[in-house]
Amino acid sequence: MTNTILDFALLYVLACLSIIPIRADGSKAPAISSWKEYQSRRPTQQELHSWFSGETNYGIAIIGGLVSCGLEILDFEADAPIRFFEITMEALGVGDLLRKLVRVATPSGGIHFFYRCSIVMGNQKLAQVLDDHGKRKTLIETRGEGGYVVAVGSPAACHRTNRPYQLISGDLCAIPNISPAERDLLLTVARSFDQVEPKKTVAAVVNTHFSTGLRPGDDFNLRANWSDILGPHGWKFQFERDTQSYWCRPGKLLGVSATTNYKESDLLYIFSSNADPFEPETAYSKFAAYAFLNHGGDFQAAARELKGNGFGQEDLFIESWKK
Fold first, then answer.
1. CA-CA to 119 of 20 to 30 Å: which in 21, 133, 286, 317?
2. pLDDT tens digits along 199-245
């Protein structure tokens, strides 16, 4: 028997999902003006019947967050690297985590992954790319507290393509719970696909009276390898994809906290907000990373040590270092 839109609505609310009606005009806009109150309470059966019975032609949107028992949705746009995300999860040995999530295909070719967690935040943009006009375009984001997505069961007219949302795997009435660590893993892997330049790059710059020869820091950038820099401090190599290597920070058993050779730059790019002494969304040269890990960010002390270890040329006078 084919379920009606009201049947879907009733099932969703029984499964601890807060929902609202949306317009069936491709806009995904709420069909009621007071929709935000359903960010903190689920609708009653009477409200569901008033929205979805009779002549009205509405779709359903599922709201994320605590009101839906910790629901969060990982939202991949059609041109997001969905397949590479799956390959990366397999490479990390956590393909089963991805497979247990509820998966919905969007009409435009994207994917929604549904899960519940004890930690849910507001909507987050995880991976972006610059378009032809230099503007940021989001590839992967979350829909959590305060956000919503169009639900399976909605009329095809709810999307501009006039195509329906389709359940690929799992059950929207039995969305799995995952741990905060598993959620963090999903989100950090998603962030690894960000194609926008880091907010900040830290590299040692030297002021010299003359510049014959090679400075110790520059020589170190050319000759050192990331394993020798990061490994002694507890960083773990995870895998390599294309020209980038993926690393897990100290104190974490599994995940992606940073990459090296980001965009073939030979830089360390940090994703994690818990990768002390590094800052998130920041790229570091080999010498800068070495200085932070071994000398508390004192570039002068790092340069002196490297010079004593055979890096650089004898005739280069180091006056001062700065970020």
1. 21
2. 778 876 544 333 456 889 999 999 999 999 999 999 999 888 778 89
Domain 5-191 classification at class level = alpha beta
Q: Which has the closest alpha carbon to 204: 262, 143, 285, 283?
A: 285
DSSP 43-76: PPHHHHHHHHSTT--EEEEEEBBGGGTSEEEEEE
* DSSP-based helix, strand, coil % in the chain, nearest 5: 30, 25, 45
Cβ count within 10 A of residue 292:
21
Task: Domain ranges for the chain, please list them.
Answer: 5-191, 200-322
Q: Is residue 207 packed enough to be buried (19+ CB in 10 Å), middle (13-18) or exposed (0-12)?
A: exposed
Please state the pTM of the whole predicted model. 0.80
Residues in a beta bridge with 64? 145
What is residue 172's DSSP assignment? T
Residue with tokens 């998130």: 280
Q: What is the DSSP string of 110-170?
A: -EEEEEE-S---B--EEEEEE-TTS-EEEEEEEE-BT-EEEPTTS-GGGSTT----EEEES
Average pLDDT, the chain: 89
DSSP 19: E
Q: Is-contact 74 186, C-beta < 8 A?
A: yes
Q: In what order do the strands lie in the sheet with 18-23?
A: 18-23, 58-63, 148-150
Longest dimension (CA), the chain: 87
Across 69-87, average pLDDT: 94
pLDDT at position 208 is 37
